[in-house]
Amino acid sequence: MERSSSGWFKKWRRRRKAREGRGAGGEGDHQHKVVVDGSEIRELVEDGEAFGMLVDTTFRQLDADGDGKLSVRELRPAVADIGAALGVPAEGASPNTDHICSEVVSELTHGTSQGEVSKAEFQEALSDILLGMAAGLKRDPIVILRMDGKDLRDFVASTRYEPSAAAIFSQVGSEGVPLRQCLSAALEQLAVDHGVPPASDAWVAENIVEPALRQLPADQLEQPASRDGFVRQLRDLLGAVAERLQEQPVIVAHTENTYDGSGVKRLLANKFELDKLLDSVWRGVAGEHKNKASKECIIAALDKMADAASVPHYGAVKQVDAVVNKAIKTASADGGKTVDEAEFKKLLTDTLGAVMRQLSSNPVFVSTNTVVHEPLSGSSGLFSSPPPVTSSPK
Fold first, then answer.
1. Which residues form the domain of 164?
2. How far is CA 90 from CA 35, 279, 376, in A?
């Protein structure tokens, strides 16, 4: 679809800022970090006039034959376009918001016999998707970082550099290992808080890392690394990386989450909320699974409780998936045995309890750094210069 809605969003953002007494450029002119927490998405959906105009514009773009009906297959690109204009990174940057989008589109498809939706149905679905994304971002905000070499130069010039470099060498260096290999491994060890974008990203490797490595003496790169030589050459390499970032800034979507079971504990302690949620989940169980507690059925039910329990949806975080799999076995909820409503609810509660105990004793910390390769259509309101347009994310 044409991306004319991006221009519409820029106008809407300028009008909103003007109402708030801020200029169009405003405080974003010198920012290197923006937190995407869903607030702008909620404001848009709650602005009846603006949201109605958005629905009209988007629906006309997608309804190519003008018959007033829209294929549900077109919902995902529409949401991707709107999300990009609001500063939400491409699919893959936030597993929870990806799951919400997929779930709503799937439910809409399931409830549409002809595989088509009217404009009113499209507006309702779009509202549900965007508000779901906003809720996911409020719980797990995405930090958009503009990496232009400044933070990296500050790190190299600081007192932190030499101890950090020495510590890294103790992990990646050993007798006979070429300096090039040690330096490449060091870039994998350094993180966004040092000012280094994900070196494993194909575009970053080709356009930032390799050109920087070519600035170092080629003969030395193939020699076995010594500690002092590594510390010195890593400093030079990071300086070259900083120069490349200054020329071609990289936009990174960063998330951090710690799953320690506290959300599950709060849910289990609130009997009223738990009972209400269990009733809702039981009503939503597909007919063919009503009397059989299979692993797939239990996982589907737990997914409907994930937000209330502050845990990721199944498939979003593999470490938590492993905890859920073990909890299902611990609660004997994977046998596919025939159960009634009370027994099904007890299996779910026991499984949640097992998840809580595992996460309490061994919390799962997840940090993701995804290079944003598609241009954020609304980035003029986020950063002073646009992000790079590169290959697809890994």
1. 149-248
2. 15, 35, 9
Contact in structure between 161 and 122 (CB atoms under 8 Å): no
pLDDT at position 118 = 81
C-alpha dist (Å) from residue 325 to 53, 180, 332: 45, 41, 11
Q: Is the pLDDT of residue 156 over 50?
A: yes
Establish if 80 belongs to a structural domain.
yes
For 119, the 3-state DSSP assignment is helix
Claim to verify: residue 265 and residue 238 sit in the same structural domain: no
Query: Per-residue pLDDT tens for 30-83?
Result: 347 778 888 888 888 888 888 888 888 888 877 777 777 777 666 666 666 666
204 half-sphere exposure, CB direction, 13 A CA radius: 26
140 and 169 fall within a common domain: no
Number of domains in the chain: 3
Q: Per-residue pLDDT tens for 163-182?
A: 999 999 999 877 778 999 99
| Largest pairwise CA distance in the chain | 73
Residue with tokens 């970032």: 245
Arithmetic mean of pLDDT, 225-233:
91
Spatial separation of the C-alpha atoms in residues 322 and 313, rounded to whole Å: 12
Query: Do the beta carbons of residue 355 and residue 311 sit within 8 Å?
Result: yes
Which of these three, 224, 248, 272, is where a domain ends? 248
Residue length of the chain:
394
For residue 308, which of 343, 269, 360, 366 has the smallest C-alpha distance? Answer: 269
Share of the chain above pLDDT 90, in %: 31
Same-domain status, 309 and 231: no
Condensed to tens digits (0 to 9), the pLDDT of residues 56-71 reads 888 887 777 777 777 7
**Cα–Cα distance list, 50 to 44, 53, 178, 245 (Å):** 7, 5, 59, 37
User: At 279, which helix (H) or strand (E)?
Assistant: helix 271-284
User: Per-residue pLDDT for 378 more than 80?
Assistant: no
What are the C-alpha distances in Å from 46 to residues 49, 87, 156, 382?
A: 9, 18, 46, 22
Please list, in sequence order, all residues whose beta carbon lies within 8 angstroms of the beta carbon of residue 226, skipping any fewer than 6 positions away. Answer: none
pLDDT value, residue 204 = 92
Q: Quick one: which H or E segment has residue 81? A: helix 75-85
